[in-house]
Amino acid sequence: PYPPVQMYGRRKMSATFSAPQSKCVDITLGSCGDVPYTKTMYPNLLDQKSREVVEFSSEYILMSVLHNLLQGECNPDLRLLSCSILAPQCEKDKMIKPCRHVCENLRKNCLPAFDTIDMAWPYFLDCDRFFAGEEEGCFDPLAKLRELAEEDLLVEVPTTLIQFTHHSYSKMVSILKKTASRCSHIARTYSIGRSFEGRDLSVIEFSTNPGHHDLMKPEFKYIGNMHGNEVVGKELLIYLAQYLCSEYLLGNPRIQTLINNTRIHLLPSLNPDGYELAAEEGAGYNGWINGRQTAQNLDLNRNFPDLTSEVYNRAGLRWARLDHIPIPQSYWEGKVAPETKAVMKWMRAIPFVLSASLHGGELVVTYPYDFSRHPLEEKMFSPTPDEQMFRLLAKAYAGAHPIISDKSEGRCGGNFVKQGGIINGAQWYSFTGGMADFNYLHTNCFEITLELGCEKFPLEEELYLAWHENKESLLTFMEMVHRGIKGIVSDKFGNPIKNARISVKGIRHDVITAAGGDYWRLLPPGTYIISAHAIGYSKVMKRVTLPAKMKRAGRVNFVLRSLGTKPKNFLRGPTEDIYERYDPLEHFDPHAQHAQSEPREERGQPARHNEKPWWWSYFSSLGQHKPLWLLKQR
């Protein structure tokens, strides 16, 4: 509920009006001393009748602390706009309303900052309620601020403005939302779930159709900060988001081509709880333990289902499937992090084609399998059926990185010079429950792991160099999603066939079609026999040659003929095994609060929904007059 406010002159088509027996007076409010006018009037637009009433109001206290609450975002703009309501301009004993378009523009740019701290937009900055149109004779409270800003502008506009700093969780979310707002026609932010302590796992997406999968457009993802104390990847993805937005707006043809033809998802921090713990140690502390794990003390890169062991057990069975392996029921008997569940559900919801996870502590690119084919061998070359493609992907990133591609052995990552800066994961060291192996064996997605430096939490002054070294590699790797073949599988009437299997002769790993019948199959240059088959349809085979210089996916469509009945001896489709049986992941709510302190309905007591946000303490002096209007409706 908003406080009652008398709207003087509401029925008049004018922004100027006078209250009965009111005169213009000097502005004496401390927080409004720099407004571009000298006189105001009481009662003000909120019907507050004196300076003393204003200074003790929740609206004035909020205006005074917004700079701290929003960590400098949108200030002094918000303060000046608030002053135009609490101490509106007065001329010739007439009050003048501020302009509505100024309010609307500021709200569009600043609302993400309020969302970040879970605060509602202040009622007294309601653009329709307290502001007026230009035709009504309004005034612009930010005009002077803009004039000063224009004087400071350089003649040449820089290509991209990025602040190379460390970002707390709240700053990260704010930057992502601000970037998405700036490029709202090609970007959006969303959450794939919540961490154990309740922080949103925020993603920024770039696409010409944000929020939707477009037919034939491949899906790509980068995941950073899986280990909370390995922060370079997190910062690089924040910088990358700003770079993609700015360069697209500036007409960079490479970036426009990439975004116009790819749906890109950036998840800067999969472990925000761990990051906050690591950040307490401070930059420059090369911590190998603090913050690595989640708030539940779980290592996320050991928490995924071990499907690699299942592959090794099946390998000798000629007809056993080695792709789209279901999650074993026994997996759910252990402790599964909400972050792990959220990212697995995300992988199922979107038909990702290519991915990389960004880590720190070494300088090398690794690829699956990460678990040795012999459980007693800690360092054993353990290739997937797509060894050749994975090596091509790893080399694409390593080759564009000036340090990884350096032949010097006396540097960070020098141990991997002879391998070209890349290595099979299990050959480096073997472990189970990794995310890269799970991507490959449970979904269509190929994922590699990027170890981006020997220092896990570098000093701030080292971040620009990290961006400079990795920018080209990050872009080059994203472009690799367009290698191989793509197409649509349909029946003779043009109806798409979902979950059809695309097989490559000699490579024992299939991909399946998405809901629209489209598919993408990453392949290195060469000649292949490709087949498409689905339950109830005939099998179709085609011979395909991919030239060495081919940089775009070749189009290979399939039209399958219906057999009328389902053959009894046909292998069960992937989704029949995985998704149609009871699966705890399908019933998991990734946006639920998972912390130990989460409210539970026990002994007839309802769950508590009245817990206040952290900033509520700023208004403790107001007693019963606290600003309930700042609390978002639950």
Automatic annotation (TrEMBL):
Cystine links in this protein are: C103-C127
One biological process term in Gene Ontology: protein processing
Q: Which InterPro entries match?
A: CarboxyPept-like_regulatory, CARBOXYPEPT_ZN_1, CARBOXYPEPT_ZN_2, Frizzled_dom, Frizzled_dom_sf, M14_CPZ_CPD, Peptidase_M14, Peptidase_M14_domain
The places in or outside the cell where this protein is found are: Secreted, Extracellular space, Extracellular matrix
An MF annotation (GO) of this entry: zinc ion binding
Name one cellular component (GO) term. Answer: extracellular space
Q: Which is one Pfam family of this protein?
A: CarboxypepD_reg
Give the coiled coil ranges. none
Q: Please state every residue range assigned to the domain named FZ.
A: 19-141
Cofactor(s), names only, from the UniProt record: Zn(2+)
Question: Keywords assigned by UniProt?
Answer: Carboxypeptidase, Disulfide bond, Extracellular matrix, Glycoprotein, Hydrolase, Metal-binding, Metalloprotease, Protease, Secreted, Signal, Wnt signaling pathway, Zinc
Reading the lineage from the top rank, the first entry is: Eukaryota
Secretion signal, residue range per the UniProt entry: none
**First-listed, main subcellular location of the protein, grouped into a coarse class:** secreted
**Active site positions, chain numbering:** E451 (proton donor/acceptor)
SMART domains the record matches? FRI, Zn_pept
What family, per the record? Answer: Belongs to the peptidase M14 family.
Q: What is the protein's name according to its record? A: Carboxypeptidase Z
Organism, as annotated:
Chelydra serpentina
